[in-house]
Design a protein that fits this description.
CATH architecture of the largest domain: 3-Layer(aba) Sandwich
CATH superfamily of the largest domain: Periplasmic binding protein-like II
CATH topology of the largest domain: D-Maltodextrin-Binding Protein, domain 2
Shape: globular
Structural class: alpha/beta
Oligomer: single chain
CATH class of the largest domain: Alpha Beta
Number of helices: 11
Strand content: 15-25%
Number of domains: 3
Largest sheet: 7 strands, mixed
Distance between the termini: 69 Å
Helix content: 40-55%
Length: about 300
Protein backbone atom coordinates (compact mmCIF):
# COMPACT_ATOMS: atom_id res chain seq x y z
CA UNK A 1 0.00 0.00 0.00
CA UNK A 2 1.28 3.44 -0.94
CA UNK A 3 1.06 6.71 0.92
CA UNK A 4 -1.56 9.11 -0.35
CA UNK A 5 -1.48 12.88 -0.40
CA UNK A 6 -4.79 12.85 1.47
CA UNK A 7 -3.25 10.87 4.32
CA UNK A 8 -0.34 13.29 4.48
CA UNK A 9 -2.76 16.24 4.65
CA UNK A 10 -4.57 14.54 7.52
CA UNK A 11 -1.32 13.92 9.40
CA UNK A 12 -0.23 17.54 8.97
CA UNK A 13 -3.64 18.76 10.19
CA UNK A 14 -3.41 16.60 13.32
CA UNK A 15 0.13 17.85 13.94
CA UNK A 16 -0.96 21.50 13.56
CA UNK A 17 -4.01 21.22 15.81
CA UNK A 18 -2.80 18.62 18.30
CA UNK A 19 -6.28 17.11 18.25
CA UNK A 20 -8.02 14.54 16.03
CA UNK A 21 -11.41 16.25 16.31
CA UNK A 22 -10.16 19.68 15.30
CA UNK A 23 -8.08 18.17 12.50
CA UNK A 24 -11.18 16.38 11.17
CA UNK A 25 -13.09 19.67 11.25
CA UNK A 26 -10.32 21.40 9.30
CA UNK A 27 -10.25 18.63 6.71
CA UNK A 28 -14.07 18.49 6.46
CA UNK A 29 -14.25 14.77 7.30
CA UNK A 30 -15.61 12.80 10.25
CA UNK A 31 -13.25 12.11 13.12
CA UNK A 32 -13.55 8.28 12.71
CA UNK A 33 -12.65 8.57 9.02
CA UNK A 34 -9.60 10.71 9.78
CA UNK A 35 -8.50 8.43 12.64
CA UNK A 36 -8.79 5.40 10.38
CA UNK A 37 -6.59 7.03 7.74
CA UNK A 38 -3.97 7.96 10.35
CA UNK A 39 -3.91 4.37 11.62
CA UNK A 40 -3.50 3.13 8.04
CA UNK A 41 -0.68 5.61 7.53
CA UNK A 42 1.08 4.46 10.68
CA UNK A 43 0.70 0.84 9.52
CA UNK A 44 2.37 1.71 6.21
CA UNK A 45 5.19 3.48 8.03
CA UNK A 46 5.59 0.75 10.62
CA UNK A 47 5.85 3.36 13.34
CA UNK A 48 3.58 5.64 15.36
CA UNK A 49 3.30 9.24 14.20
CA UNK A 50 1.52 10.47 17.33
CA UNK A 51 1.48 9.83 21.04
CA UNK A 52 -2.19 9.67 22.09
CA UNK A 53 -2.57 11.76 25.23
CA UNK A 54 -5.57 12.29 27.49
CA UNK A 55 -6.27 15.76 26.09
CA UNK A 56 -4.88 15.54 22.60
CA UNK A 57 -1.90 14.20 20.71
CA UNK A 58 1.76 15.06 20.25
CA UNK A 59 4.23 14.06 17.57
CA UNK A 60 6.65 11.22 18.14
CA UNK A 61 10.25 11.84 17.00
CA UNK A 62 9.48 9.83 13.85
CA UNK A 63 6.22 11.71 13.41
CA UNK A 64 7.99 15.06 13.58
CA UNK A 65 10.34 14.06 10.79
CA UNK A 66 7.48 12.59 8.76
CA UNK A 67 5.29 15.70 9.06
CA UNK A 68 8.15 17.98 7.99
CA UNK A 69 8.65 15.94 4.82
CA UNK A 70 4.91 15.55 4.26
CA UNK A 71 4.43 19.33 4.40
CA UNK A 72 7.07 19.76 1.71
CA UNK A 73 5.32 17.14 -0.44
CA UNK A 74 1.95 18.90 0.07
CA UNK A 75 3.45 22.29 -0.82
CA UNK A 76 5.01 20.80 -3.96
CA UNK A 77 1.74 19.12 -4.99
CA UNK A 78 -0.17 22.36 -4.43
CA UNK A 79 2.40 24.25 -6.49
CA UNK A 80 2.06 21.76 -9.36
CA UNK A 81 -1.73 22.01 -9.22
CA UNK A 82 -1.54 25.80 -9.10
CA UNK A 83 0.88 25.89 -12.03
CA UNK A 84 -1.42 23.69 -14.12
CA UNK A 85 -4.58 25.59 -13.24
CA UNK A 86 -2.79 28.92 -13.47
CA UNK A 87 -2.65 28.59 -17.23
CA UNK A 88 -6.37 29.33 -17.17
CA UNK A 89 -6.02 32.01 -14.53
CA UNK A 90 -8.36 30.10 -12.21
CA UNK A 91 -8.03 27.06 -9.91
CA UNK A 92 -9.59 23.88 -11.27
CA UNK A 93 -11.04 22.89 -7.88
CA UNK A 94 -13.32 24.84 -5.52
CA UNK A 95 -11.54 27.43 -3.41
CA UNK A 96 -11.63 26.51 0.25
CA UNK A 97 -12.87 29.66 1.98
CA UNK A 98 -13.03 29.96 5.78
CA UNK A 99 -14.83 32.69 7.74
CA UNK A 100 -15.10 33.47 11.45
CA UNK A 101 -18.53 32.90 13.10
CA UNK A 102 -19.13 36.59 13.82
CA UNK A 103 -18.86 37.35 10.09
CA UNK A 104 -20.17 34.31 8.21
CA UNK A 105 -23.94 34.59 8.93
CA UNK A 106 -23.95 38.32 8.21
CA UNK A 107 -21.83 38.59 5.06
CA UNK A 108 -22.36 35.25 3.31
CA UNK A 109 -25.87 36.12 2.04
CA UNK A 110 -24.32 39.10 0.24
CA UNK A 111 -20.88 37.73 -0.64
CA UNK A 112 -21.72 34.60 -2.56
CA UNK A 113 -24.39 35.90 -4.92
CA UNK A 114 -21.94 38.72 -5.77
CA UNK A 115 -19.05 36.29 -6.28
CA UNK A 116 -21.17 34.04 -8.49
CA UNK A 117 -22.00 37.04 -10.67
CA UNK A 118 -18.43 38.36 -10.78
CA UNK A 119 -16.65 34.97 -11.08
CA UNK A 120 -19.09 32.40 -12.48
CA UNK A 121 -16.28 29.96 -13.31
CA UNK A 122 -15.14 29.68 -9.68
CA UNK A 123 -16.43 27.21 -7.11
CA UNK A 124 -16.24 27.62 -3.33
CA UNK A 125 -16.12 25.21 -0.41
CA UNK A 126 -17.11 27.28 2.62
CA UNK A 127 -16.31 26.56 6.27
CA UNK A 128 -16.87 28.47 9.50
CA UNK A 129 -14.30 28.35 12.31
CA UNK A 130 -12.65 30.52 14.91
CA UNK A 131 -9.60 32.52 13.94
CA UNK A 132 -7.03 30.12 15.40
CA UNK A 133 -8.55 27.17 13.52
CA UNK A 134 -8.61 29.13 10.26
CA UNK A 135 -4.95 30.08 10.64
CA UNK A 136 -4.11 26.44 11.37
CA UNK A 137 -6.03 25.51 8.22
CA UNK A 138 -3.96 27.94 6.17
CA UNK A 139 -0.77 26.51 7.67
CA UNK A 140 -1.87 22.93 7.00
CA UNK A 141 -3.09 23.69 3.49
CA UNK A 142 -6.67 22.59 4.25
CA UNK A 143 -8.08 26.02 3.34
CA UNK A 144 -6.98 28.54 0.71
CA UNK A 145 -8.12 31.86 2.16
CA UNK A 146 -9.78 33.13 5.31
CA UNK A 147 -11.83 36.14 6.34
CA UNK A 148 -10.70 37.23 9.80
CA UNK A 149 -10.92 40.28 12.05
CA UNK A 150 -7.67 40.21 14.02
CA UNK A 151 -3.99 40.25 13.22
CA UNK A 152 -2.40 36.79 12.96
CA UNK A 153 0.23 36.08 15.63
CA UNK A 154 3.82 35.45 14.66
CA UNK A 155 5.33 32.02 14.31
CA UNK A 156 3.06 30.69 11.57
CA UNK A 157 3.43 30.75 7.80
CA UNK A 158 3.93 34.07 6.07
CA UNK A 159 0.52 35.45 5.13
CA UNK A 160 -0.73 38.14 2.78
CA UNK A 161 -3.37 40.37 4.40
CA UNK A 162 -5.83 42.23 2.18
CA UNK A 163 -7.94 44.88 4.01
CA UNK A 164 -11.69 44.82 3.39
CA UNK A 165 -13.39 47.46 5.54
CA UNK A 166 -13.78 48.76 9.10
CA UNK A 167 -16.72 47.27 11.00
CA UNK A 168 -17.83 49.60 13.79
CA UNK A 169 -19.34 48.37 17.07
CA UNK A 170 -22.61 49.55 18.60
CA UNK A 171 -24.16 48.99 22.02
CA UNK A 172 -27.27 46.79 22.19
CA UNK A 173 -29.72 47.02 25.11
CA UNK A 174 -33.28 45.86 25.64
CA UNK A 175 -35.92 47.87 23.77
CA UNK A 176 -37.22 49.38 26.99
CA UNK A 177 -33.86 50.63 28.22
CA UNK A 178 -33.23 54.34 27.78
CA UNK A 179 -29.83 55.89 27.23
CA UNK A 180 -28.56 59.16 25.81
CA UNK A 181 -26.83 58.64 22.47
CA UNK A 182 -24.00 58.51 21.72
CA UNK A 183 -22.92 56.29 24.61
CA UNK A 184 -19.42 56.63 26.02
CA UNK A 185 -17.55 53.34 26.42
CA UNK A 186 -16.53 54.43 29.90
CA UNK A 187 -20.20 54.68 30.92
CA UNK A 188 -21.08 51.09 30.00
CA UNK A 189 -21.58 48.88 33.05
CA UNK A 190 -19.03 46.11 32.54
CA UNK A 191 -20.86 43.91 35.05
CA UNK A 192 -23.83 43.69 32.66
CA UNK A 193 -21.78 42.94 29.56
CA UNK A 194 -22.66 39.64 27.87
CA UNK A 195 -19.83 38.10 25.88
CA UNK A 196 -19.07 35.26 23.50
CA UNK A 197 -17.29 32.15 24.71
CA UNK A 198 -13.51 32.22 25.10
CA UNK A 199 -11.62 31.70 21.85
CA UNK A 200 -13.72 34.14 19.81
CA UNK A 201 -11.69 37.15 18.72
CA UNK A 202 -14.83 39.32 19.04
CA UNK A 203 -14.91 38.52 22.77
CA UNK A 204 -11.32 39.75 23.13
CA UNK A 205 -12.13 42.89 21.14
CA UNK A 206 -15.16 43.66 23.32
CA UNK A 207 -13.14 43.14 26.51
CA UNK A 208 -10.42 45.48 25.24
CA UNK A 209 -12.93 48.10 24.07
CA UNK A 210 -14.66 48.30 27.44
CA UNK A 211 -11.54 47.89 29.55
CA UNK A 212 -12.91 44.75 31.18
CA UNK A 213 -10.97 42.14 33.11
CA UNK A 214 -9.97 39.11 31.03
CA UNK A 215 -12.20 36.94 33.26
CA UNK A 216 -15.29 39.02 32.40
CA UNK A 217 -18.34 37.14 31.26
CA UNK A 218 -17.19 33.70 32.38
CA UNK A 219 -20.47 33.17 34.22
CA UNK A 220 -22.22 33.65 30.87
CA UNK A 221 -20.51 32.82 27.62
CA UNK A 222 -22.48 32.21 24.42
CA UNK A 223 -21.37 30.52 21.22
CA UNK A 224 -23.20 32.96 18.91
CA UNK A 225 -24.21 36.60 18.80
CA UNK A 226 -27.82 35.54 18.16
CA UNK A 227 -27.91 33.82 21.57
CA UNK A 228 -26.56 36.92 23.26
CA UNK A 229 -29.15 39.12 21.54
CA UNK A 230 -31.93 36.92 22.95
CA UNK A 231 -30.63 37.53 26.48
CA UNK A 232 -30.27 41.27 25.83
CA UNK A 233 -33.84 41.45 24.48
CA UNK A 234 -35.07 39.95 27.74
CA UNK A 235 -33.30 42.60 29.82
CA UNK A 236 -30.59 40.29 31.16
CA UNK A 237 -27.64 42.44 30.12
CA UNK A 238 -26.10 44.52 27.34
CA UNK A 239 -23.60 43.72 24.61
CA UNK A 240 -21.54 45.15 21.80
CA UNK A 241 -22.55 44.16 18.27
CA UNK A 242 -20.61 44.57 15.03
CA UNK A 243 -22.38 46.84 12.59
CA UNK A 244 -22.60 44.13 9.90
CA UNK A 245 -24.83 42.11 12.27
CA UNK A 246 -27.54 44.75 12.59
CA UNK A 247 -29.72 43.72 9.63
CA UNK A 248 -30.08 40.24 11.13
CA UNK A 249 -29.92 40.91 14.86
CA UNK A 250 -31.40 44.40 15.41
CA UNK A 251 -35.06 43.50 15.68
CA UNK A 252 -37.61 45.66 17.49
CA UNK A 253 -36.85 43.72 20.66
CA UNK A 254 -33.52 45.48 21.22
CA UNK A 255 -32.34 49.07 21.10
CA UNK A 256 -29.15 50.01 19.24
CA UNK A 257 -27.00 52.86 20.53
CA UNK A 258 -24.13 54.50 18.68
CA UNK A 259 -20.85 54.85 20.58
CA UNK A 260 -19.30 58.24 21.26
CA UNK A 261 -16.20 59.20 19.25
CA UNK A 262 -13.70 57.80 18.69
CA UNK A 263 -15.80 54.65 19.07
CA UNK A 264 -14.39 51.20 18.50
CA UNK A 265 -14.55 48.50 15.85
CA UNK A 266 -12.61 45.85 13.98
CA UNK A 267 -10.86 45.68 10.63
CA UNK A 268 -12.05 42.83 8.43
CA UNK A 269 -9.46 41.34 6.10
CA UNK A 270 -8.80 38.40 3.80
CA UNK A 271 -5.62 36.41 4.31
CA UNK A 272 -3.83 33.65 2.41
CA UNK A 273 -0.43 31.99 2.21
CA UNK A 274 2.20 34.36 0.86
CA UNK A 275 3.31 33.46 -2.66
CA UNK A 276 0.06 31.76 -3.62
CA UNK A 277 -0.41 31.72 -7.42
CA UNK A 278 -4.08 32.43 -6.77
CA UNK A 279 -3.30 35.84 -5.26
CA UNK A 280 -4.87 37.78 -8.19
CA UNK A 281 -8.09 35.77 -7.71
CA UNK A 282 -8.05 36.42 -3.96
CA UNK A 283 -7.57 40.16 -4.52
CA UNK A 284 -10.51 40.16 -6.94
CA UNK A 285 -12.59 38.44 -4.26
CA UNK A 286 -11.54 41.11 -1.76
CA UNK A 287 -12.59 43.87 -4.16
CA UNK A 288 -15.97 42.22 -4.69
CA UNK A 289 -16.50 42.20 -0.91
CA UNK A 290 -15.40 45.83 -0.57
CA UNK A 291 -17.88 46.81 -3.28
CA UNK A 292 -20.66 45.39 -1.10
CA UNK A 293 -19.85 47.68 1.82
CA UNK A 294 -22.80 50.10 1.30
CA UNK A 295 -25.24 47.16 1.52
CA UNK A 296 -23.90 45.87 4.83
CA UNK A 297 -23.03 49.11 6.60
CA UNK A 298 -24.87 51.82 8.54
CA UNK A 299 -28.57 52.16 8.06
CA UNK A 300 -29.11 48.46 7.44
CA UNK A 301 -31.21 48.30 10.60
CA UNK A 302 -33.20 50.94 12.39
CA UNK A 303 -33.21 51.73 16.08
CA UNK A 304 -36.62 51.63 17.76
CA UNK A 305 -37.98 54.99 18.79
Amino acid sequence: MKLSLKQMRYAVAVARTGHFGRAAELCAVSQPALSQQILALEAICGAALFDRLQRGVSLTPFGREFVDLAQRAIDSADAVEALASGQRGRPVRPLRFGLIPTVAPYLLPDIFPALRRAMPDLGFAVSESRTDALLEGLAAGSIDLALIASSPPGGGPRLTLEPLFHDRFVLATSAGERSTDPVRLADIDGGRMLLLDEGHCFRDQAIAACGLDAAAGRTFAATSLSTIVEFVANGLGVTLLPEIALRKEATGRIRVHQLAAPGVGRDLKLCWREGSPYAPVFRAIAQTIRDLRPAVGPGAASTPA
